[in-house]
Amino acid sequence: MLNRRNALKVAAAGGAAALFPWDRLTGAGSQAVASSLATAEAAPIVPFAHAMPLPKNLKPTSFTATSDLYEIRMQEAQVEIVKGLMSKVRTYDGTFPGPTIRATQGREVVVRQINELQVNTAVHLHGAHVLSEHDGLPMDTIVPGGERTYRYPNNQPAASLWYHDHAHHLEAENVFMGLHGLYLLTDHNERTLPLPSGPYDVPLVIRDARVEADGTLLYTRPSDCPHMLVNGKERPYFQVAARKYRFRVYNACANRYVKLRFADGIEFTQIGTDGGFLETPVQQSELLMLGGERADIVVDFSRYKVGDSVVLENPGAQSIERPEVMRFDIVRTAPDYSFVPGRLTTYPPQPTPTVERDFEIRTFPAMTINGQSYDPNRVDITAKLGTTEVWTVRNVEAPAAPGKPDFHLWHSFHTHLTYFRVLERNGKPAGTRDLGLKDTVTLGPGDTVKIAMTWGPYTGQYLYHCHQLGHSSGGQMGRIDIVA
Ligand SMILES: [Cu+2]
């Protein structure tokens, strides 16, 4: 394993331009990769050794009449990801994943971010409508020892958002090493819905990892990552009551998709996606999620007896790992007055599009969108505030040969500032995979999607990019300026 990986890295560094950030042997951020090559093998996979923790809620440091103020120190920490091993990670406030910020529509959140790490950072609130200067643009970095205060107005409906790193060329490694945390925005509508709440509203932050036998968390290609984490722990178990739960599922992987289904094939109810609630709930039996995507689901465990267990599995697991993602153990009964109503929200009408644009995403021979790598000084698109546009986005990669890893052939198209609706996938009307208000859409090899968005509510400089973060770090990103 060591020899093969070393050979790959040396070949990449000595050959043509390195495509993937983990192929860099020199430069900012690569020290962790280079030093980690000292150990040979990944730690063995031991499923269900950990109880699943819940990310801690961050407490405001102070309040004003209109705002909640928070302070986060980005710092290194030692955490137990795989049972019995300590791993050095990059954190928000010492926890892995970072602490959860709970926000309310109409009330501003102000976060002072202090960088005590050795690397540049930039904090992006994924899915939020924020002013450009608070969007965490790749060049608006916080240098080691520096700090920056971000303001989030929260003038948008309830949604499961997350904050994560976006520093130029470093976001993939920084997110992989731990710089991601949840931001749960609520509103009046959500509070009136009879959904499972309180201890029955649980985040599941799913991501892959490679932990070496000595505990080192190694940033490397997804096909070398055998570990699958939920809320920071390798393949945990979670004790539940025989009743309904709401799960906010995040794919926080830097570079891969996950498929999720229950081992016994049970259906669950999807109630939300990236931009908040669906208008009406939908029964699903499997989710396919690429990095950045969220799915809000309700699972009814009352179908099981106390003492039963059910495994959430990933049919997209590779041969070096295992299909189990986590296990739910039904350990007690509990009263349940929650239910999923037939109508969850109502979207504003979609204005008629007046602009069409085409995008082609490529990994080979270089990480590009429409043939160009990201240049922060080049404006790729100028869009007018309030204009509705239709974008046709094509993934031009060919499918992998059977049995070969294909994560690098998938793309995950993400827009900042606003949500979009998926109109079509491969010439057909969008199906249950592309419901609701989205900010990230998956594109398998050869896929084409049509999406529509209305640009606003702010003018300024924003981004669109692939949310396979190894791809965006390599340049699969464009600049869009919104003008009045
Ligand atoms: Cu991509």
Automatic annotation (TrEMBL):
Q: Which gene encodes it?
A: cotA2
Q: Cross-referenced PROSITE patterns, in alphabetical order? A: TAT (PS51318)
The Plastocyanin-like domain covers which part of the protein? 74-188, 356-480
**Pfam families found in the cross-reference section:** Cu-oxidase_2, Cu-oxidase_3
Keyword list (alphabetical) reads: Capsid protein, Plasmid, Virion
Q: Which SUPFAM superfamilies match?
A: Cupredoxins
Keyword RNA-binding listed: no
The molecular function GO annotations come to: copper ion binding; oxidoreductase activity
Q: Does the keyword Cytoplasm apply?
A: no
Protein name per Swiss-Prot or TrEMBL: Spore coat protein A
The Swiss-Prot or TrEMBL record describes its family as follows:
Belongs to the multicopper oxidase family.
Q: Which organism is it from?
A: Streptomyces lavendulae subsp. lavendulae
